[in-house]
Amino acid sequence: MSLVIFSHGRCLSYDVGHDHPEAASRIHAVQDQLLSSGLEFVVQQRDASPATREQLCLAHCPAYVDHVFDAVPDTGHIWLDDDTQANAKSLNAALYSAGSGINAVDAVMQQQDTQAFCLIRPPGHHAEYKAAKGFCMFNNIAIAAAYAMQQYQLQRVLIVDFDVHHGNGTEDIFQQEPRVKFFSSFQHPFYPYTDPVSHSPSIVKMPLAAGTTGVLYQQRFTQEWLPLMHEFQPELVLVSAGFDAHMEDDMGQMKLTELDYLWLGQQLKQIADQHCSGRLVSMLEGGYEHSPLARSVVAYLKGQL
Ligand SMILES: [Zn+2]
Description:
Number of domains: 1
CATH superfamily: Histone deacetylase domain
Helix content: 25-40%
CATH topology: Arginase, Chain A
Radius of gyration: 17 Å
Number of strands: 10
Bound molecules: zinc ion
CATH architecture: 3-Layer(aba) Sandwich
Oligomer: single chain
Low-confidence stretches: none
Largest sheet: 8 strands, parallel
Distance between the termini: 8 Å
Strand content: 15-25%
């Protein structure tokens, strides 16, 4: 097997405000931990390429994509929603974030038993078909899924989202898409305050109370999700990998630890191995407290080795 990490310097070259939790130092912390853990010498690191307008439009309304390009100024910034500040550099980074998912899909589809992790920012899972939301401009994982279906004619794409926040954008984009099965676990009630009940066979939700521990999380994942994931028989596994459900991350109030992320890496790798020759692509979403984020990413990747 081989594990490939896609990233790009542009993803570290912007700032959305002093003391903002979604900062470039998140990526630096993960890079440092990859080095000190020794994983740096096991994985392949590759530069991502930027997504094209056409690729963004695989998952977004063309008028929304045009609006973002037209509205973001050359200097200064605008607000695309109450939480999502954008400037020329962050728009550029968003293109590389989305592009990394396309690179990663190509890598795992074209080479046997390959897993990929996209170490990128801004995140994507809150961005809806025609709206930015929650630090997210374009929905990276949805663009990757739509690209995989178009380019490789896939009929069954599994998306798993274990960020502490519900992946409302991914649900919005794929709620009527029979080729996608989207599983999202999230603290509830909590931002973005979406409906905790699924109204589509493509969407599976696991709302979790604040204070949920790793023991309970693993129990529910095993009992409620694993049978459905195997039944779906995915041809590709995509993961919105957010690490803000860690007990040391103040963004949420859940109680997972890096051992739970190690376990998640093992479970998702097993599903990919059993059904689709190990094709597994994970993309960074949230995770804001540097040390637990970095430890959790490394544990999650070790789970795939
Ligand atoms: Zn989050």
